[in-house]
Amino acid sequence: MLLSVGYLMLYVARWWSHRARKNMYLQAVRQVVRGSSIFIRRSVSGKTYAAAGSLIQSSLVNGSPSFTPKPLVEDDHMEMLSIEPKQIVNLKDDWTAYYRPQGEYVEDETHEDIMLLLEARRPTNVDTFLKHELEVAPAEKVHILAHGAAVAWKSGTPFGIILHCTLDEFVTLAMAFCEDRLTMDEDLEVNSIMTVKVEGKSTSLVQNQEIDTDTVTESALKPNSIPAETDRNVNNAEDDNSIAKQLEHLLVPSSEQDQLTELWSNESLASNSSIGRTSELLDMIDSEARETETRAEESMMESGAGEGLSDFELAGSSSSTSGSLSQSWRFVRQTSLAKPPNVLVYAGKIDSVRKFNKVKKILEQCLDNESYVIYHLKHEEIETTPWIENTILLVIASKKRYADSNEAFLKYFKAGGKILGLGSGFDQELVGQTMIRKENWIVNLNYKSWSDVSLISGMYAYDTNTVVVDDSRVTKLATDKNENVLIVKVNQETKRSAGSAILSQVLFDKDAGDMGVTPEMFNALKKSNTARFEILGQLLTTLGLECSASSPPVLTPAVLVAKESNLKHNFLKSIENRLSSGVLKYGTQSLQFTTDDSSPAEENLLPVLTEESEPFMKNFNQGEYCGNLKSRILGNTVIYVDVIPTTMTLLDGLMFSVPETTGLIAIARQQTQGVGRGGNSWLSPIGCAMFSLHVKLPVDSNLGKAVSYLQHITSLAVVYSVCTLEGYQDIDLRLKWPNDIYYGREMKLGGVIVKSTFMDGMVHATIGCGFNVDNSNPTICINDLIQLHNRQEGTSLPACTSEQLIGRTVTCIENLIDEFQTEGAESFKQKYYEKWLHSNSKVNLQSEGNAEVQIIGLDEYGYLLVETADGVKISVQPDGNSFDMMKNLISMKTR
Question: What is the CATH number of domain 342-542?
């Protein structure tokens, strides 16, 4: 009781302090707002940004002969400055009008209406920015559009929004800004707020939508009697006039390149005609705060346990077609910020697999191999797979030109995509070319600090004066000794997007073995091999990718451990008749059961140490695992390995021989060739919990008749492993059909794959599972969510370990299997539906002419059950379909 009273008193005190401070700001603002501009910045004693004080550079001052910044209010949170005369923003200078979902505005002389100029930039440190976004509780965040009506926007650096609001709303926004609670639900960070006067007409994206600033003045534009907290809602997110539709075109993807920086780095949000003595004002406000801002790299988000192109991608949108404006902003943020780490390689039609493998091999040696997955974009998939939204980089390595592929690649470029061309026929779609030889040849390349590097080049040189795509700019990057331009960079320079391409006639995927050359040429190419990789890495970095590539980890022996000693003995006894000199061979793999811990591990030969070995067990806490394993059978006998290509095939040669009570599980700390559903690669950095589990079921049992449910059981078990811990029940883990574990709707944390075989009336299934526990990169992990929860709720829940959650997950799998076998599917489905993302969602079924269907649930076999408008129920099998939630589309794949 006393504790509750204490909390209540603390709450009241905080509320009173906040209200008193707000009233103080309001009184100060009312005194000067009509004749002056008011500029807000964080106080020095509060949190400051590197550029605080210089963010108003070239954006504040009009052409008045004099101006005087005066302090109005300064406390521990914010500093208010008045600037005379009032600053003017001329909307005719590159400003674009917002649509008005609220309806027409009318004048109201009795209301205190003002115009705000908000400037925002991409954060200089994306990781810090995202971490802070997650740390602030949703209830504490203040969205800019919840306290103002957007009038116009302007792209570039800085990004700008003109907002119409009341004085009270202005102060609310200012306080949230200075307390780091202001959000745009976008990968942009608000850096300054100032009251301004607005003149001129902004450009409209459609006819008859221009904003006439003869009526847009500070005296008065107020929505028709709609409450401030609810008047920003959008009734239909699909409506052509919704702000969300425009916001999809607002973002200008960040680029670290000098050309784009030069173009936008000094662009002002106020019109050039209204800019005066900027440097004088900056000196008077804060001369010490002027620092050069660097452009932030585009962030890439995808789970380390993520699947790839043809499977589920990141969840991005609500299934509902209606929602609030802030939800619409959130959708835009997810589609831009949550970029999966997919690098696609297009190698044409002929001999494409060999070419792809060649390109993939060199990319793997340059890119950070824990941050990206490289896929082969086949020609027939260009029009059938939703790859454009899910690609961080497209590598084109086909010399031949195909009209259909070039059209799709040009669309990707214009949508802000990044392209690396390696002697590609697509180059001609962007820049002019001149043939300088009739075949590939060796050139001496000069690029930055590299000179006379012997590399293989194609037949053309680029004409930097011939620009094919409107609003684009071509820059020379590298030449040969004859000054032929062999590498160029093409930037699209528009407000809505910024496509970026590096086109190279230098064939970085080819080495000395690809040409019939003399010994001298061969030697020259071999000597240039290091420079070849360094230059390619620099070009990839220029496109914004991480190239801190590390050598693949060395494979290690495995160690056999068991919860009880008799289990290990029984296991070894059951396979001894199959061993030849201690080696068990199956397929292309072999397991060597030995006590010699000096036996080296190879890709197709894995030593399994039958006695515990400290060097190979130091990264596995057996006590933690066994302490959390409460199952009768599953997971009792462990083959643990630090580094292995994949655990999914490790149990193949064992599961038919071992006793039923063995409970085999393979656990890895790191995989080098992890496999996802459909053959996709599975990123598996350290900190990702990874295991393959053997499950044996009678064919005529409830689950034996519906084996597909195993992937749903496993996914739910991962969620339960966390959420059934005391105090962890509010960690927002969710499920996406058929086999993904998510944080909310936003980010993928893990996935499941199941292989099954029928023998002697039994189903032998191998469950492969991976989920992020303690690896914050490349996206997010469970411990990040626990840390966020602690900060939001004031708790101190400890972080989880992989051993702990694997043990709990296996226990949950066994419990759910037992319940399913006893009670059937219905009881399980109710638990599953509580955690999945698709209840009552409406999607489009491609096989039915993109007809809209409603998701009902799971059918008797575990497949997705949907219903058409006519009441027809259709089962969608996960092995043959991909579910793109961002497009609300279920694509039926062709086998």
Answer: 3.40.50.880
